[in-house]
């Protein structure tokens, strides 16, 4: 009952306050090592607004509470908003080093790996900005060509390079957009999950087990179940209460 | 009469053929009285069968084991002009137990017909036992017949023989309810001589196993089976070559199946209720635990070793969870098991190695490791414990971390922590909307401008020049009338200049040298015929000027005339 009132009080506090003041309240709780309360505040705030700093703080609170799965979930959310944020990347790497499952994806061809790394480090807004910059350069080039500043050869090389850059940026943007909007991923938030061969809870159909913090892609959903595929290609069904969608 | 005889003959031939051609199925064994170690041949014969008989042999398997078979055989026989064919299937069977056994009636399918064989009784005697002084037998001997769960029963299987033989195959016993550890599996059989009740035997140990019962009750250790090739005495007639040298060249051997007795083991319940921390250890054990160094710095690795030694069901039970002090990181242990090969009791030591990394300075105590086991000799539960270990952790620097147990990547993370939270209020985004800076959109705007700008510039230029001419054209009349009002020395030349200037501006004429002819061309189709003529004539007058015949009169009215004309023309040219 006491807990209920506490949550109720917290809720009313949350509803009536600005995002900034709530964020500060969460930070206060965190500094006072009241991680549970801090995480509650940050969670409430994350339903109203978004920012990588919020997810960093939320992830830290969960980590201090010993909830590695939720911590990874929060850092992943922050990473999606700001993939080059060094603090989030560091904490994510640190917490990932503590999870039990070490799933090694199959080795890609180095160019594919390089491309993947680029796509991971850029957001859709980054790509939009990059596209704008390239367009602007192309515009300047056009003006200079009208003024006959360049030789014809130099101008065609520059034109070709910029057009290719626009094509590549566009391609990456589409790929990224597809990755962000189509692929649904989730994190295991309980200690261990039995992955089953079908969406039925029966003793003998457990195929393998994954542990807290492991990330998996969701390929199909059914009432109460997700079909997941791991980085190394293992596939199976898990109850949807045991994973948190990214 | 003769017809009657012929009919009778036909009838008898047909009857004969019918009787002879009828299918009969019989089952037989080659011996009805056998010893336990002997095999029995079982044969099903189908006479006059068209195809191979099909037999469901499964009812036999209850009391017999099939050693080999089925072997198929077909016989065709001509007797007194009539043909008899028989097809047979034969098996070699081994009795599973002693007593009066029964080969039940079997269903044999020949073509589409199903026939039933006759049941056969076989008496199996324990003849292979030692009491009968058989020539060949396997003895299974347990070291005890009454044990507690988890207590070791050592079973020794020995082969006794008075014959020359070689072992072809051994089937080791698989018993339900026991955990089986091989103590000795013989690769090459070595016989030694022994005497039983004055009879000489050769004996060899075939197999020795430690069996640990996992449940209580009467359990049965399954028998062991061996297939031997036994040398048969020579049947050759005596003669000149009847001596040991030649006999050795004509040895005949017979395959023989021998089986040990199955053993009944009585597994009793523990005399007392086991304590809560009892995890199933039975035997005699000792636990020791120690750390490699009792003084370390923060973040330095300590190796904590636990050794469990003794004899009993090692490797078959779990150690109780060890509680380590908080603020001490514990890595999952590695474990190894070393067995003492030279003893019949399963003896050895199990080692667990934990890596501990203290995260805080201070004095810590590692609790004693305890193990509760059941000692069957004294029939009591005993708890053995290691000594407590004290560790002093001094504050230290991170750079000194060193341990060969970890890979480089793991070490790089030790002693580090997550980065701290951010406390400044950020510029919040709306959920689901990604923030794109305004200047990013600005770059697209600039790019657009850069593409459009040069084209627009040239258009503006052209537009501007056209606007200037138009303005000039519109103000041409006003300028002309203003100029006409000014006094002039030479009114003819001056009026001509004003008029030409007017037309130049009004009609956007580029040429500076206008004359009446050009003017006529320029005005053609733009003004009325009469006005055109008037303009041309006036121009001509002006050109002719003061030298013209009407110079005096005209000079006075010329100014007015030009003014009037220009006004009219201006109205017509829009």
Question: What are the SSEs and their pairings?
Answer:
The complex is a heterodimer of chains A (246) and B (574).
Chain A: H1 2-16, H2 19-31, H3 35-46, E1 49-50, H4 52-65, H5 68-81, H6 86-96, H7 110-121, H8 124-146, H9 152-182, E2 184-188, E3 192-196, E4 206-211, E5 215-222, E6 225-229, E7 235-239, E8 243-245
Antiparallel strand pairs in A: 2-5, 2-8, 3-4, 5-6, 6-7
Helix pairs in contact in A: 2-3, 3-4, 4-5, 4-6, 5-6, 8-9
Chain B: H1 2-21, E1 24-29, E2 33-35, E3 39-47, E4 54-55, E5 64-79, E6 82-95, E7 99-103, E8 107-110, E9 113-116, E10 120-125, E11 136-142, E12 146-147, E13 153-161, E14 165-171, E15 178-185, E16 192-196, E17 199-213, E18 217-221, E19 225-232, H2 244-249, E20 252-259, E21 263-267, E22 278-291, E23 295-297, E24 302-312, E25 328-339, E26 347-358, E27 362-366, E28 370-375, E29 380-385, E30 389-394, H3 408-413, E31 429-430, H4 438-474, H5 476-484, H6 491-506, H7 516-523, H8 529-544, H9 551-572
Helix pairs in contact in B: 4-6, 5-6, 5-9, 6-8, 6-9, 7-8, 8-9
Strand coverage percent of chain A: 15-25%
Q: Residue ranges of chain B: pLDDT <50 for 5 or more in a row?
A: 16-20, 128-133, 399-413
Q: Mind telling me the CATH class of the largest domain in chain B?
A: Mainly Beta
Helix fraction of chain B? Answer: 10-25%
Instruction: Profile the largest sheet of chain A.
Output: 5 strands, antiparallel
Distance between the termini of chain A: 32 Å
Instruction: Give the helix/strand class of chain B.
Output: alpha+beta
Distance between the termini of chain B: 153 Å
Task: Categorize the overall geometry of chain A.
Answer: globular
The structural domain count of chain B equals 5
